[in-house]
Design brief:
Blueprint (H helix, E strand, L loop, with lengths): L4 H46 L3 H40 L27 H15 L1
Helix pairs in contact: 1-2, 1-3, 2-3
């Protein structure tokens, strides 16, 4: 099925903002979750300092929360990668990687971005923060 040039612009106006919203949402969600978990760690640490009996209990809770947080962030990363693959398929269907489809002699998106995936760097930083604070 061929898409009219006039319809391509409308599709772009609809889909591309959603893509960027997904990217920003993933980062904000991961950062907000990490901040929430670190806040709980600090509160639990403060409570355990004032209560000698609660130290072992607080340590167990910190361990469980750290493991749960790590699992959540890894699952969140994989969900993001799945959404990104879906949007790449849409971008490919709209011929955003093809030269001359929208602009003479150029493609809107570089072909090397078609199969590239995000790195683990951001997710590993969030996980590292969680474990660093939990270990302190």
């Amino acid at each position: 099925m061929k898409i009219d040039d006039s319809n391509k612009i409308e599709i772009l106006r609809t889909l591309l903002p959603q893509f960027w919203s997904e990217v920003i949402h993933w980062r904000e969600d991961s950062w907000r979750f990490t901040g929430w978990l670190v806040s709980i760690f600090i509160i639990l640490s403060g409570v355990s300092v004032f209560s000698q009996k609660g130290t072992a209990f607080a340590s167990a809770i910190l361990l469980v929360l750290s493991i749960s947080g790590t699992i959540y962030l890894i699952k969140n990363y994989y969900n993001y990668v799945d959404r990104l693959k879906l949007f790449r398929n849409i971008e490919e269907a709209l011929l955003l990687f093809e030269e001359h489809a929208y602009i003479k002699g150029k493609s809107i998106l570089p072909k090397d971005k078609l199969h590239s995936l995000p790195t683990w760097r951001g997710t590993l930083i969030y996980i590292g923060i969680i474990w660093l604070v939990a270990g302190a």
